[in-house]
Amino acid sequence: MKKLALLSTASLAILTGAAFAADLPSRRAPPVAYVAVPVFTWTGFYIGGNAGYGFSDTGRVTTVGNGAVTAANVAAGFRPSSFGLEPEGFVGGGQIGYNYQFGSVVVGIEADAMFTDLARTTDYVSPRGDRSSFRQTQDYLGTVRGRIGYSFDRLLVFATGGFAYGDVYNRAAFYNFAPPQNVQFLGSRKDTETGYTVGGGVEYAIPNYTLFNSAVTVKAEYLYYDLGRSNIVVGNVPPTAPNSYTTRFSNDGHIVRAGLNFKFGGF
């Protein structure tokens, strides 16, 4: 009986101590709260600006005679049947667009408008001394394009293509052979031409950098555009004879540019 009493007393003491210890505050650190890391997405609207360089390396001017005399002049080389004219200059403007991302694929649409300082005046002088002058300028270029690309998280590689339009001025002036060398034939045209554009580039979203609650992305892009051909009748000045020429200009070129976008949407 004495042993049983001692065992009961010891068990009661152990249970009492355990209950007291359970009421004491724990010294272990509380679990760290889970904070989800924002996942970047290309989905959303964006607006930005761009600047770069435009040039033409395939521009050709061709001329044919519309009468017996003018056709003979072209055949003899007094007027060039084909001549290179390659305008170049600064381009810069702005763009606006929208992207939608599903998986790693990004599709979107973008519209832009650029001021273009593309210009070139080139003279041709025949072995006999006949001077012909050609000029081409372009004041602006705009596009409306689709885009499709593949994203590597914050890096986007894309292809693009669509509609292009631009203001183009073309002029041809043919001078007299005999002094004084005045303009004998003249023709020009200034109009908004339309065509297509294709290209591609890369775009990168700068990590941990926002401005006005928008993500900031930078891009490098190449575009080829073709606004078709312009046929210009180069007639007598003054129009005292029926002789004339037709000169055709190529209105195409290349754009290499860098841009900055502000993307509004999720991360």
Determine Rg (CA atoms, Å).
36 Å
| Average of pLDDT | 85
Helix percent band: 10-25%
Overall outline: elongated
CATH topology: Porin
CATH architecture identity:
Beta Barrel
- Total domains, how many? 1
Order of strands across the main sheet? 1-4-5-6-7-8-9-10
Beta-strand portion reads over 45%
Uncertain ranges: 1-15, 18-24
Terminal Cα span: 76 Å
- Major sheet attributes: 8 strands, antiparallel, barrel
CATH level 1 class label:
Mainly Beta
Give a quick summary of the entry.
This protein has 267 residues and is mainly beta.
Q: How would you describe what is shown here?
A:
- The chain is mainly beta.
- It has one domain (38-264): Porin, CATH 2.40.160.20.
- It has two helices and ten strands.
- It has helices at residues 2-23, 68-75, and strands at 44-55, 60-65, 82-84, 88-102, 105-125, 131-152, 155-175, 183-211, 214-236, 244-264.
- An eight-stranded antiparallel beta barrel has the order 1-4-5-6-7-8-9-10.
- The radius of gyration is 36 Å and the shape is elongated.
- 26% of the residues are buried.
